[in-house]
Amino acid sequence: MTFQLEDDLALARTLAAHADLVSMRRFRALDLEVTTKPDMTPVTDADREVEHVIREALSAARPHDAILGEEFGASGEQSGEGRPPREWIIDPIDGTANFLRGVPIWGTLIALVIDGAPRVGVVSAPALGQRWWAATGLGAYTQQSGQHERPIRVSSVSSLSDAVVSYNSLPEWIRSGRGDQAIALAQSAWRARAIGDMWSYMLVAEGAIDVATECGLQSYDMAALVPIIEEAGGRFTDIDGREGPWHGTACATNGILHNDVLTMLK
């Protein structure tokens, strides 16, 4: 069966709504179970439960699609250059460290990648009371609790000296060998902040800040961000200018500043 992007986006938004019910029930729970994964990052019972709920729904609604999730890995046939023709990529709770400490900056990320390119993205941050979504050719939108949905657009800031930059984790920049470049970028901006996780990228899509860039990422951290940034009029690459969420780093801008930022990080 052939699905339209409108159908896939509607499904992703429904999945996010179900995920929010699970994650908010466990947010700030006194009996939250926290363990450490082999890569030394934390994982909670909420991470696993959210991904399980999404996977179960996807298996019923799109039984022939592949799934890649942070907690339970990949399922489905690989083809072509190693990516399935249709692949859902899930980060059940992006910002687990915030989640387990009671900080509200975290969210569920759901993406649909078609022939290797992210085409549908939903980011839901229930503790912030906001959700963002987009699909290729359909625009980018957000909705806050109790309000109507609205289209979003990146800023028109054209100079780094006037820009707000989020550099996220400075230790990751240092580990990557580009700490000096990150500091230089921050010093070149009007304001620089480490906003962190998915929120900084959504603020770029809304035009509230102008640049979000980061090292030490996985595809499930980025896939859902790409359609939202791009449909809002921005650009998303890695810090070396390569397209897509496959290269371990992220650089999201309003598009106007993109080449300047890449030059600073080179």
From TrEMBL:
GO terms for molecular function: histidinol-phosphatase activity; metal ion binding. SUPFAM superfamilies: Carbohydrate phosphatase. It holds the Pfam family Inositol_P. It is an enzyme of class 3 (hydrolase). GO terms for biological process: L-histidine biosynthetic process. Gene3D superfamilies: 3.40.190.80, Fructose-1,6-Bisphosphatase, subunit A, domain 1 (3.30.540.10). CDD domains: Bacterial_IMPase_like_1 (cd01641). It catalyses: L-histidinol phosphate + H2O = L-histidinol + phosphate. The keyword Heme does not apply. Pathway: Amino-acid biosynthesis; L-histidine biosynthesis; L-histidine from 5-phospho-alpha-D-ribose 1-diphosphate: step 8/9. InterPro entries: His_9_proposed (IPR011809), Inositol_monoP_metal-BS (IPR020583), Inositol_monoP_superfamily (IPR051090), Inositol_monophosphatase-like (IPR000760). Keywords: Amino-acid biosynthesis, Histidine biosynthesis, Hydrolase, Magnesium, Metal-binding. Its cofactor is Mg(2+). Its EC number is 3.1.3.15. PANTHER family: 3'(2'),5'-BISPHOSPHATE NUCLEOTIDASE, PHOSPHATASE. Belongs to the inositol monophosphatase superfamily. This is histidinol-phosphatase.
